[in-house]
Design goal:
The chain is mainly alpha-helical. The protein is built from 5 helices and no strands.
Length: 170
């Protein structure tokens, strides 16, 4: 990686996912080397940065699952609090690294698409027609509720008015 001609041929898959410090070293060396030859605003650099960010996100998801599992099983025999603490520290560091990467590259300003394995029926955004239908149903429910309240208020006013006229007649 010290040879500049080699760093331009390294692919994203050559970055070890288990070590974010190596990835950040690669990113800084790569961006120094690439800035000489390519425009930092080019689509290729953006695609590369997005891919690196997605790799970071996948690693963070894995770390978060491990932390959650350790926390959920904290009181079972054989679980070490030191191991859980180390996993939480690794997750915290990975989050900081990702946040810094997103800030430095500007990729953080773009929405991140969900990973294919995490997509489910609930994670797919609704279409415009679905949003219109949902909003129309919610407005109809609110209208009917307001109408019932108004009718109840009218009944109450009529009862109070009737009681008032009966008391005046006496």
């Amino acid at each position: 990686m010290n040879n500049p001609s080699q760093s331009s041929t390294l692919s994203i898959s050559s970055i070890p996912q288990s070590s974010f410090s190596n990835a950040s070293v690669y990113m800084s060396q790569s961006s120094l080397h690439d800035s000489i030859h390519t425009d930092p605003n080019s689509p290729e650099v953006l695609k590369q940065n997005v891919q690196i960010a997605l790799d970071h996100v996948a690693r963070i998801q894995s770390l978060a699952r491990n932390c959650l599992h350790s926390i959920q099983n904290a009181y079972q025999a054989g679980n070490s609090p030191a191991h859980t603490t180390a996993e939480l520290a690794a997750l915290t560091q990975a989050l900081r690294t990702l946040a810094e990467f997103l800030r430095q590259t500007g990729v953080g300003a773009y929405p991140m698409p969900p990973s294919p394995e995490s997509q489910s029926a609930s994670s797919i955004p609704p279409t415009e027609q679905q949003l219109i239908d949902t909003t129309a149903r919610e407005v109809q429910v609110l209208y009917e509720r307001l109408k019932r309240i108004q009718e109840s208020n009218t009944v109450a006013v009529n009862l109070l008015g009737a009681a008032d006229t009966v008391s005046r007649a006496r």
